[in-house]
Amino acid sequence: MSIQMGDTVPSATFKIMGKEGPENITTDDIFIGKKVVLFAVPGAFTPGCTVTHLPGFVVNADKIKAKGVDTIACMAVNDAFVMSAWGKSQNADELLMLADGNAEFAEALGLTMDASGFGMGKRSKRFAMIVENGNVSYLAVEPAGGIDVSSAENILAQL
């Protein structure tokens, strides 16, 4: 069963790129005492994620933060090196690029998919959520192939 609105975000540890290499960051670090928009993509540098999904959050970061959002986080089942490089290539300086390298957080949310047919193994479904002090206040999970309900524009309308 997947996470629902009103649920508490499960505990997990992500990797982010620090000045000296990959560093840990926990869900408590990210969500407790904050209003966060988290969106997840099946993979960094993949076409839909790079051309449509991530750019919407980059372009709308100021508008989203103006609605009281402390952090905009992008998550994928990739490593911290890939997430950092992707963020830099997309000018995503205002976003927290989270590596869920082993899909542990995506699994805890119940939002994984099998992308083995594309040679990608287990991945996160495409989704976006608004989390307030660790509790999910809004959740939008895309149907296969979609980039609509989890778009920056839709999330902005929900804030």
From TrEMBL:
Keywords carried by this UniProt record: Antioxidant, Oxidoreductase, Peroxidase, Redox-active center
GO molecular function: thioredoxin peroxidase activity
Family matches, as SUPFAM superfamilies: Thioredoxin-like
Record-annotated Thioredoxin domain positions: 3-159
Pfam family, one: Redoxin
PROSITE patterns in alphabetical order: THIOREDOXIN_2
Gene3D superfamilies in the record: Glutaredoxin (3.40.30.10)
Top EC class of this enzyme: oxidoreductase
Bilayer-crossing regions: none
Family per record: Belongs to the peroxiredoxin family. Prx5 subfamily.
PANTHER family membership: PEROXIREDOXIN, PEROXIREDOXIN-5, MITOCHONDRIAL
Annotated function: Thiol-specific peroxidase that catalyzes the reduction of hydrogen peroxide and organic hydroperoxides to water and alcohols, respectively. Plays a role in cell protection against oxidative stress by detoxifying peroxides.
UniProt protein name: Glutathione-dependent peroxiredoxin
UniProt source species: Pseudohongiella acticola
